[in-house]
Amino acid sequence: MAEITDEVLDSVAKIARISLNPEEKANLRKDIESILLTFKEIQDVKVDEDELYYVVDHPHPLREDGTPVQSETKGIMDNVPQKDGQLIKVPKGL
């Protein structure tokens, strides 16, 4: 596992726009090392396709392709509060 140096902690603090005192640096170093160790343990787990468990029979069912439902212009225009012919009137912006 890579060592978390003061330079790495300073970079993290700069990106996060925080300042760290020596005690906070020590705590942050311990936390980051713990997180990295957890990810290393996860990476070391060997899983074959046969060992995977899916709640449903088909983990990634495909949907049927089709034409999406189109709204009718007349139905939309019937619900518009203000219109001018086929145009919708809206309040003026700044």
Question: Explain this structure to me?
Answer:
Strands 1-2 form a two-stranded antiparallel ribbon. Helices cover 41% and strands 4% of the residues. It is mainly alpha-helical and 94 residues long. It has a domain at 20-46. The protein has helices at 6-16, 22-43, 73-78; strands at residues 83-84, 87-88. The longest helix is centred in the middle third of the chain and has 22 residues, at 22-43. The chain is flat. It contains three helices and two strands, in the order αααββ. The two termini are 57 Å apart.
Any low-confidence stretches, pLDDT <50, length ≥5?
none
The level of helicity is: 40-55%
Gyration radius (Cα, Å) is: 29 Å
* Strand order of the biggest β-sheet: 1-2
- What's the mean pLDDT score? 83
Morphology call: flat
What's the count of strands?
2
User: Helix/strand-derived class?
Assistant: mainly alpha
